[in-house]
Amino acid sequence: MEHMLWLDMEMTGLDVAKEVPIEIAVQVTNQKLESLETYHAVVKQPQQYLDNMDEWNKSHHGESGLTALIPSGKDPNIVESDLLDLADRFWGDEKIVLCGNSIGQDRLFIDKYFSRFAERLHYRMLDVTAFKLVFNNLYNQKFEKQNTHRAIEDIQESINELKFYLSFIKA
């Protein structure tokens, strides 16, 4: 695994059966967690999904400015094509390991809404949340997050959080 694919999505909610992705960002890093390329897109979705968001999502996505950007966002098919192009350039035929915080939730939405991209993904994932649970509960080491709930910032926080936990491990 020469490259790592960090991914974060913002969605209208967490229920993959009735919610949709509204923002996606990916960052390709090397094994030293140095950024090689970043991709970001606001995903255009029908107004009904925005109208049906719960209060938490309406509040957070409204305050961050994301909600206002969705009507002029990219078509989901274009977003998926962009992701596939990036995958081809960095991984070729190799399966891609997803990295991020609680990445399993994002994977559910990828599987449903970006199925061609999902076919490129490995079943293994690097979830920073697992490190968080171990270091918080066993060693009382906590990484302070900004919780902006914007995809690009969340990815960078996930990378910085992993660096924080790895700094406690002696080789």
Report on the structure:
- The protein has 171 residues and is α/β, with parallel strands linked by helices.
- It has one domain (3-166): Nucleotidyltransferase, domain 5 (2-Layer Sandwich).
- It has helices spanning 47-51, 55-63, 66-69, 76-91, 103-113, 115-118, 128-139, 151-166; strands spanning 3-11, 21-30, 35-42, 96-100, 121-127.
- It has a 5-stranded mixed beta sheet, with helices on both faces.
- The longest helix has 16 residues, at 76-91.
- It is globular, with a radius of gyration of 16 Å.
- 32% of the residues are buried.
- The mean pLDDT is 96.
Descriptive key words:
Nucleotidyltransferase, domain 5; five-stranded mixed β-sheet; 5 strands; alpha/beta; 45% helix; 171 residues; 23% strand
Derived structural class: alpha/beta
How many domains is the backbone divided into?
1
How does the major sheet shape up? 5 strands, mixed
Element pattern in H and E? EEEHHHHEHHEHH
Total beta strands:
5
What is the oligomer described by this structure?
A: single chain
Give the CATH superfamily. Answer: Ribonuclease H-like superfamily/Ribonuclease H
SS element count, helices: 8
Distance between the termini: 20 Å
CATH topology: Nucleotidyltransferase, domain 5
Portion of residues in beta strands equals: 15-25%
Question: Order of strands in the sheet with the most strands?
Answer: 3-2-1-4-5
Rg over alpha carbons: 16 Å
| Name of the CATH architecture | 2-Layer Sandwich
Low-confidence stretches: none
Average pLDDT metric: 96
CATH first level: which class? Alpha Beta
Q: Given the C-alpha coordinates, what overall shape results?
A: globular
* Helix percentage range: 40-55%
